[in-house]
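Form 12-C: Joint structure prediction
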Amino acid sequence: MSPCAYDSSMAAPRVFSVSELIRQINLDLFKYNDISVEGEVTNYTRSSAGHHYFSLKDSRAQIRVVFFATNARFLRFRIENGLQLIVRGRLTVYEAKGEFQLNAVVAEPAGLGALQLAFEQLKKRLAEEGLFDADRKKPLPMLPQRIAIVTSPAGAAIRDVLHVLGRRFEGLTLHVYPVRVQGANAAREIATALRHLSRWKLHDVILICRGGGSLEDLWAFNEEIVARAVAACEIPTISAVGHETDFTICDFVADFRAPTPSAAAEIVIRAKSEICTHIDHMTHRIHHIVEGRVRNYRHELRHLTSSDKLGVVPQRIARTRERLERRRVMLFRLLDARAKSMRRRLAAFDEPLAAYPARIVRERQHLKALMATLSAVSPLSVLSRGYAIAFSRTRRRRKPILDSSQVGVGEQIEVQVKRGRLVCTVDQRTLGVESLWPETDVL
Amino acid sequence: MAARTKSNEFEKAFQQLEKIVQRLEGEELPLDDSLQLFEEGIRLSRFCHQRLEEVEKKIETILADAKGQPVTEPFDAGEMLDEDEE
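Section 2 - Result
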């Protein structure tokens, strides 16, 4: 090892100004005038003027990238951190900072195509916003009869739709809203058409159609402006873009996705013919049910009137009448028996009763005899013959005077004659003198 | 606007018809009631069929005029293919 690092005999190196050096390097970097670099995007920012600034990095190194708006306006996808990007451009040193930087002209995602990436990005973004949510989907009207179709009037889609409708579209009105379905203005025209149709509200359903094509061809239907117009549309939409395998953002936002324009037309036709069939079915059902019921009633009625069901009534009446008759007979029999028994009991009295008149005569004769006797012995009969009865008055009880000693001289006596009574004073009396008549004659 | 209202009318009639069928199928109704429902059902069925055929069959193009109002004209199905497509 020499004591000195630099050989003093050698000419001293040229001294550059910083600017000179950077300019020189930039000249030297001309061989990196058109290079492509792949790396992961980091530190991404976007200026208000639309310039994109970021770094590309791999595991060991990184490089600044500037993507000016003039070039970046053709970008279809969004640059974001973490994105694996292939940037094509010119390598320079940024004089103000003395930093390497890549002036991007074109950027493409590594792996996927740019459109594919743009599609995925928009899809993700709108999904997060909820634009594809099932609860945003409007139901198809039951009977779509006034149909608007947003498509190219000369494209394959309208041909297919008309072919499917063919002669079957009795009761359908089809309005074709002509738009370009590809090219620079296509997305704007489609969005405008949807806005008008939504405002007019003349239709039951809107078909958004385009025939098959490449991702590039179908691109208008993947643009945000179309997606937003479909989301805002107040009339139910059916999106039918490309072939069965093609999915567009428009398909996701629309209320329905039909795999092809023909299929969209089928949906409309089928809705109508299914309704027709259903109505016919229901009409048939109610005919059937009601006819069946009427038939049943008629049958039951016949059954009721003819046989046992209603026949029960006269039967019951007859039975009741019979029972009544039996009771009546029973009652009569009972009354009869009762009367007989009464009569028998009455007859029991007859005999003693029949004896009564004879007995009365006999008793009456007896009584008469008694009366005769009675009147014969009565004092009254004696009086009527001129006898009189004398009573003493002094005694408490009137007493017939049988003995003259019963009264004193001067005493008063009563004398009963046949008619009336005399009060007499005894002037004289004779004691112990026999009566004029034998004793036996007195009473 | 008119188109939408008419659709609703149709849907109402249709649903009513469905309800009538359900009631007739499901309930033990007095005969008078079922006959009344039947009449109503036939009326609704006729109405629905009428509605199904009533829309005029036509194809037109529709566009917004300068004021944003709809303008229709007959659709010429024989038009040239759009240069953009195919």
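Section 3 - Comments
Chain A touches chain B through 56 residues (CB under 8 Å). The first helix of chain A runs from residue 18 to 28.
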